[in-house]
Amino acid sequence: MVEGRRMAVLNAIVSDYVRTREPVASRALAERYCLGVSPATIRNDMAALEAEGYINQPHTSAGRVPTHKGYRSFVDHIAAIKPLSGPERAAIDRLLAGVVDLNDVVEGAVRALAELTGQLAVIEYPSLRHVHLRHLELVPLPPRRLLLVIITDSGQVEQRTLAVAQEYLNDLSSLETLRQRLNQALVGTHSSEISAVVSTLLKQTEPDMRSLMHQIAAQLVAALQSDVEERLVVAGTANLARTTADFSSLEPLLDAVEEQVVLLRLLTGATDQPSQSVSVSIGEENGQEALAEASVITTSYQTAEGGGVARLGVLGPTRMDYPAAMASVQAVANYLSRYFNQGAQNQ
């Protein structure tokens, strides 16, 4: 564990290297940072930091660069995540102005996160397994099909098409009665309780409509309670291409990004953190050879009243502006949580 003055020296090395991508020498630290000691003392501190594995000397020059251990110590000593500046908040507002539905919100948020951090940004859509039902619609479609539209309190819209007997489509009055009955019984119901409610509805449905009700109930339960694949939205892949010099080879990393299961695995740690906590995984901590030279910053956002969460984060080189990236990740998570909580309160 680095303490005291040596921690200040390590912080200065990390900050300078992130800014310049040039190995940092003791003279540069003495000139650029108010460390309160002579270049000779700084050299002694740098020698100690190198001996302990926090920095190394990549070439024969006098400069040093942080190691993964150095970055970890730097991140662990960040006392508090700084608030975004006025221009940074304005960037979020600009990219999220005029959003009208869930897709707009998530896509605007991931673009804002990529722009603010200059990294690859990833946001997970809210899960349908942690929502309340807002509205159901039944729409007859030719020939002999019925469209089931499911709208949740998080703004998600799920559509299922059913093949049904023509007699049901000819009886629009009975369809409307069934739609009203479904909404009356199910609106406001949590997804975990849908199955029990529709089971009761099936028993109460008239025999001539029971077959159709059974089809609708099966599709509704499948949509809201099945183990559906998580959906991710990604922005800023081009940002990785601009950091080629930070990787010995960028191709394995880009291949890993193409695999959504890899991104999901990277984001998983966010749900294990306390609410509003930001997690940073550096280099080998990512558990993927392709990401051994990358860092991942993640957190979660609240998607539904009562604790439903989804994840978001950024991926980039270990030579990353950690304080700024952590602040941006948290700020976008806070925005998404406010959006979904306000939506729930307005139901």
TrEMBL record:
SUPFAM superfamilies: GAF domain-like, Winged helix' DNA-binding domain. Residues 17-60 form the HTH deoR-type domain. It comes from the Bacteria. One of its GO terms (biological process) is negative regulation of DNA-templated transcription. The keyword RNA-binding does not apply. One of its GO terms (molecular function) is DNA binding. Signal peptide: none annotated. Keywords: Repressor, Stress response, Transcription, Transcription regulation. The keyword Repeat does not apply. Negative regulator of class I heat shock genes (grpE-dnaK-dnaJ and groELS operons). Prevents heat-shock induction of these operons. Belongs to the HrcA family. This is Heat-inducible transcription repressor HrcA.
